[in-house]
Design goal:
This protein is of the alpha/beta class. It has 3 domains: about 200 residues, HUPs (Rossmann fold); about 80 residues, SH3 type barrels, CATH 2.30.30; about 80 residues, Translation factors (Elongation Factor Tu (Ef-tu), domain 3, Beta Barrel). The protein contains 8 helices and 17 strands. The strands form 3 sheets. Strands 12-15-14-13-16-17 form a 6-stranded antiparallel β-barrel. It has a 5-stranded parallel sheet with strand order 3-2-1-4-7, with helices on both faces. Strands 9-8-11-10 form a 4-stranded mixed sheet, with no helix packed on it. α1 runs parallel beside α2 and α1 crosses α6. The longest helix has 20 residues.
Length: about 375
């Protein structure tokens, strides 16, 4: 087949292209440029990445094309990213990027090149279920690298055209293959964080687009203990960058903490962001990782997308409320094409509006939606 591979400059997509070429396919590489701003800054690595991708294409013996999707990215991904942060939520732009750019704009471009399939370096798998005739999205075989969480919004038409060559491998094997065939990026460090932000300080980046709006930081007792720079710059469960130290609990507060059974009550426990009160521009923080305000047994998600094209049945499933989380047993209490209500066997930590709740049936990713509410206690003081 003619297969168009998204070459990012990293080792995973490079080995994907190599494996496809070895399998006898006609392989064409595409380097996607998704961000034009501050192209010459120390944080933007797209030029370096393209050089690496071109070097890989030369070693493998395939053509490579440089395609700019920056306008699509700004319209379809970044605009939504800013809207969510301004509303006090914490979005996951990588999920939207996959749905709108890598498996839509890129897929459309590949089809114009006469491709029968596209391929990326994601750690996931696609399987055609002969009984249902539907394509299933499966976890990658390497549990430490599985990226199905980021791909849960893909639909049947997209999966039917997609290959994930390294989804069957462990990362160590991918590195070994890259070393063996002499790929120039065999030992290149994996990229982390949001693609267009790079290694830059996140608050510094966001401040260029969202104005600071300082307000009070309050503890669970209602006491003002500091000032935040703007609610958009914080996320639930955040521990670093709050500008407040551990405050020793005493008196009535100490007794209340001990009554709740919190570990280390009375010690200099770290503070965690627990709530963002948009109406009063107040950031609520609590001491102790296991504080009740950080724990939820139920969540509601909206804007759902189901891989099969229809909502899963009610009943027991597993879910992730953030990437790299272990699958958490839950029960689907309500579900339809656009929303779902999940109840967990064990309380989940720092369930965050704007992040995605993704459902699984064993190794099969069923889809998911954007978290809008959870049942963790809210401030009453």
């Amino acid at each position: 087949m003619r297969v168009v591979v998204g070459l990012s400059g990293g080792v995973d997509s490079a080995v994907s292209a190599y494996l496809l070429k070895q399998a006898g396919h006609e392989v064409i590489g595409i380097f996607m440029k998704n961000w034009d701003d501050d192209d010459d800054s120390e944080y933007c690595s797209s030029n370096i990445d393209f050089v690496d991708a071109a070097a890989v294409a030369d070693v493998i013996g395939i053509e490579i094309e440089h395609v700019n999707f920056a306008v699509d990215y700004k319209d379809r991904v970044f605009a939504e990213f800013l809207r969510e942060y301004q509303a006090g939520r914490t979005p996951n732009p990588d999920i939207l990027c996959n749905a709108e750019i890598k498996f839509k704009a890129f897929l459309d471009h590949a089809m114009r090149l006469g491709a029968e399939k596209i391929a990326t370096g994601h750690y996931a798998r696609v399987r055609l279920n002969p009984a249902s005739g539907l394509h299933e999205l499966l976890k990658g075989l390497d549990p430490s690298k599985d990226q199905s969480y980021f791909l849960h919004r893909l639909n049947q038409a997209q999966l039917a055209k997609t290959l994930f060559p390294v989804g069957e491998l462990h990362k160590s094997e991918v590195r070994r293959i890259a070393d063996e065939i002499g790929l120039p990026n065999a030992r290149k460090k994996d990229s982390t964080g949001i693609c267009f932000i790079g290694e830059r300080p996140f608050r510094e980046f966001l401040n260029r687009y969202i104005a600071k709006a300082p307000g009070p930081i309050k503890s669970d007792s209602g006491r003002v203990i500091g000032e935040h720079v703007g609610l958009s710059f914080y996320t639930l469960g955040q521990r670093q960058g709050l500008g407040i130290g551990g405050v020793k609990a005493k008196g009535a507060q100490l007794k209340a903490l001990q009554a709740q059974g919190l570990r280390g009550a009375g010690a200099h426990e770290p503070w965690f962001v627990a709530r963002k009160d948009i109406a009063h521009n107040t950031l609520w923080v609590v001491q102790g990782h296991d504080h009740p305000w950080l724990l939820s047994t139920q969540l509601h998600a909206q804007d759902c997308s189901w891989v099969s094209g229809s909502a899963p049945a009610l009943g027991p499933r597993a879910a992730k409320t953030r990437y790299r989380q272990q699958d958490a047993p839950c029960e689907v209490r309500e579900v339809d094409a656009s929303q779902c209500l999940l109840r967990f066997e064990q309380a989940q930590w720092a369930v965050t509006p704007g992040q995605s709740a993704v459902l699984y049936d064993g190794e099969v990713c069923l889809g998911g939606g954007v978290i809008d509410t959870c049942n963790a206690p809210v401030p009453q003081v």
